[in-house]
Design goal:
globular; two-stranded antiparallel ribbon; four-stranded parallel beta sheet; alpha/beta; Rossmann fold
């Protein structure tokens, strides 16, 4: 299986972003937040507001509340790491479903920066480790989708 690397060339000037971060697994989610902030800063975002919620399950409701707050896009960051019970399946699935529902119902890009991994080591590898920083990638996705929905000249 080949791994495709996305080539980002986006401009966030004039765009405002909400970042919603789960506090559960904060050692991981704070690294995702660092990556998202770095991406937005490099792209020249005009506004960034960060909001914290208890866990990944709470991300969709927070995103819905923020959807009408004048943001160009919302970036949802979390880390759901498989444990010994099926709790993982419920939380990961409902977070993904809920965030997609917010995007579709509220007509705003909601970037999915929620890691769903089997181990802490896998999460660390995706929060600034050997697999990059998925918070950075989520922010770049948010910028691109915000631009796609409101391209200049239309």
């Amino acid at each position: 299986m080949s791994r495709e690397t996305l080539n980002w060339s986006v401009d966030a000037k004039g765009l405002k972003f909400a970042i919603v971060v789960a506090r559960f697994n904060s050692a991981i989610t704070e690294k995702l937040l660092e990556g998202a902030r770095e991406a937005l800063a490099k792209a020249g975002a005009d506004g960034i507001e960060v909001f914290h919620v208890p866990g990944a399950f709470e991300l969709p409701l927070a995103a819905k509340w923020l959807a009408h707050g004048g943001f160009s896009a919302i970036i949802a960051l979390g880390a759901v790491i498989r444990g010994e019970t099926p709790h993982f399946d419920f939380v990961a699935g409902e977070a993904a479903r809920g965030l997609q529902q917010v995007a579709l119902e509220c007509n705003i890009p909601v970037a999915f920066g929620v890691l769903t991994t089997d181990t802490l080591e896998q999460a660390e590898a995706r929060a600034g480790g050997q697999h990059g920083n998925k918070g950075y990638a989520a922010a770049m996705t948010a910028i691109e989708m915000a631009r796609f929905g409101k391209p200049s000249g239309r």
